[in-house]
């Protein structure tokens, strides 16, 4: 499947609550392939959510295994359908960027541990515990499903938002 065009803020789909997936069928499997290809094409990307490619469904992918921050602690490629956080604890600030907001990064407070329930690409209910950078990436992508951008989570736009020097 081909890499898809990323919608840029302030596109209205990015601020909309995505719909739950009713059935995991070939269309959803194709969407997952598009998301994976799009993530792999994105410069430094560790995840992408369906709303970022114009599809308002609760589907996202995350893979931090090639990132220096996630290399030692990860579950590999995760394809999540209708994910929900059922447990969280800890808090840390981390600098985040987003393909939908390519010119900026920001300091965002996130839980350092999350437990997530979701359907996998076969439609099987799963649960996983993630910590560290993987937990942050999962929260970031799941925020997209609720119409929330990292910009919405920055405590202070004056002190917590930074212009990106380059995007690669």
From TrEMBL:
Pfam families: Pep_deformylase (PF01327). It comes from the Bacteria. The active site is at residue 141. It is an enzyme of class 3 (hydrolase). SUPFAM superfamilies: Peptide deformylase. Fe cation binds at residues 98, 140, 144. The keyword Transmembrane helix does not apply. Keywords: Hydrolase, Iron, Metal-binding, Protein biosynthesis. It catalyses: N-terminal N-formyl-L-methionyl-[peptide] + H2O = N-terminal L-methionyl-[peptide] + formate. The keyword Acetylation does not apply. PANTHER family: PEPTIDE DEFORMYLASE. Removes the formyl group from the N-terminal Met of newly synthesized proteins. Requires at least a dipeptide for an efficient rate of reaction. N-terminal L-methionine is a prerequisite for activity but the enzyme has broad specificity at other positions. This is Peptide deformylase. It comes from Geoanaerobacter pelophilus. The gene is def.
């Amino acid at each position: 499947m081909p890499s898809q065009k990323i919608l840029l803020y302030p596109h209205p789909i990015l601020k909309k609550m995505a719909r739950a997936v009713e059935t995991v069928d070939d269309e959803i499997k194709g969407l997952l392939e598009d998301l994976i290809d799009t993530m792999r094409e994105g410069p430094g990307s560790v995840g992408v959510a369906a709303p970022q490619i114009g599809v308002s469904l609760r589907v996202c992918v995350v893979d931090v295994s090639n990132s220096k921050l996630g290399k030692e602690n990860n579950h590999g490629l995760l394809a999540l359908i209708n994910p929900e956080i059922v447990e969280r604890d800890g808090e840390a600030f981390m600098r985040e960027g987003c393909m939908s907001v390519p010119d900026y990064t920001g300091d965002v407070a996130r839980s350092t541990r999350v437990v997530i329930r979701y359907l996998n690409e076969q439609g099987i209910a799963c649960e996983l515990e993630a910590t560290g950078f993987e937990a942050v990436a999962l929260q970031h992508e799941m925020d997209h499903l609720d119409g929330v951008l990292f910009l919405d989570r920055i405590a202070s736009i004056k002190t917590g938002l930074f212009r990106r020097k380059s995007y690669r």
